UniProtKB/TrEMBL annotation:
Domain UCH catalytic: from-to ranges: 9-242
Organism: Didymosphaeria variabile
Family membership: Belongs to the peptidase C12 family.
Protein name (database record): Ubiquitin carboxyl-terminal hydrolase
Gene responsible for this protein: YUH1_2
Annotated site, Transition state stabilizer, chain positions: 94
C-alpha cells in the first residue's frame, strides 16, 4: 500500500480468530462473543451462526489506493443527496498506521448486536461513551491518545506466530475491512477506517437474515472477485458470533 502521513504506528495484528477473541475480551467484551474462521461460503450448513459481523483480510494489489480513490469519488457523486452518516453506525477514521485489523475489530464489536455485549465501565465502553458527541476526527484523536488501548493492542499484536517486522513504520501488504448490519438491520455496510465513511453494500431480504445468509455470502463472493481480480488471492474471512457460555 502507498505510504500515508501517519503520526502513530502499530505492529499489525495477525489474522487469527483466537488472537482477535482474546483482544476483544481484554477490551471489555463479554466472553459470549468470539471470532471464528469462515472456511467455505459454498457450504451453508458448515458456517458459524449467528454471524453478528464479518472481518475480511486480503492482500492489497499495486493499484489498491487508486481503485479505492476512484470508488470513493463515485460513491460521493451517487450519494450527494444522502448523508453517509445517517445510518445508526459507529465508524472510526483510521489515523494509526498498520492498524486496519484493530479498526475492523472496533467496527465489528461497536455495531449491531455486538455492541450489547460490551461490559459497562470497560475500556471499550468508556471509549464509545466519550465518542458519542464527537466528530469522527475528534473520536479518532481520542482513540489514538488512549494508552490503555495501546497497551492491550500491543499485547495482542505480539501473540501471533507470523513473522512481522519489529519496526511498526514498515508497510504491510494486506488490509482488513468489516461488514455489519446498519441500525435498521436491513442493509449490509462495509466499515473501513481508510475510507470516508460507511459504504452501503446491499439490502437484506429481512432484518433477521444472518450476515452469512444468502445476501451476505453473495456480497462476499463479489468482493473476492473484484479484489482478487480473478486471480488466486489469499483471502481470510472471520465471523463474530455469540455462543453459550
Amino acid at each position: 500500500m502507498t505510504a500515508r502521513p501517519y503520526t502513530k504506528h502499530f505492529i499489525p495484528l495477525e489474522s487469527n480468530p483466537e488472537i482477535f477473541t482474546q483482544f476483544i475480551h481484554a477490551l471489555g467484551v463479554s466472553p459470549v462473543l468470539r471470532f471464528e474462521d469462515v472456511l467455505a461460503l459454498d457450504e451453508p450448513s458448515l458456517l458459524p451462526h449467528p454471524a453478528l459481523a464479518l472481518i475480511l483480510t486480503y492482500p492489497t494489489p499495486i493499484d489498491y489506493e487508486e481503485r479505492r480513490a476512484a470508488e470513493e469519488a463515485a460513491a460521493q457523486k451517487e450519494e450527494r443527496s444522502r448523508d453517509r452518516q445517517d445510518v445508526d453506525v459507529v465508524w472510526f477514521k483510521q489515523t494509526i498506521n498498520n492498524a486496519c485489523g484493530f479498526y475492523a475489530i472496533l467496527h465489528a464489536i461497536s455495531n449491531g448486536e455486538g455492541r450489547h455485549f460490551i461490559r459497562p465501565n470497560s475500556v471499550l465502553a468508556n471509549l464509545l461513551e466519550g465518542c458519542q458527541t464527537l466528530a469522527p476526527e475528534e473520536c479518532a484523536e481520542r482513540l489514538e491518545a488512549s494508552q490503555e488501548i495501546e497497551r492491550i493492542y500491543s499485547q495482542a499484536a505480539r501473540m501471533g506466530e507470523s513473522e512481522i517486522s519489529e519496526n511498526p513504520e514498515d508497510e504491510v501488504d494486506f488490509h482488513f475491512v468489516c461488514f455489519v448490519k446498519d441500525g435498521s438491520g436491513r442493509e449490509i455496510l462495509e466499515l473501513d477506517g481508510d475510507r470516508m465513511g460507511p459504504v452501503r453494500r446491499g439490502q437484506l431480504a429481512a432484518s433477521d437474515e444472518d450476515l452469512l445468509g444468502e445476501t451476505g455470502r453473495r456480497i462476499m463472493k463479489q468482493y473476492f472477485k473484484s479484489e482478487g481480480d480473478g486471480g488466486n488471492v489469499a483471502f481470510n474471512l472471520m465471523a463474530l458470533i455469540a455462543v453459550e457460555s
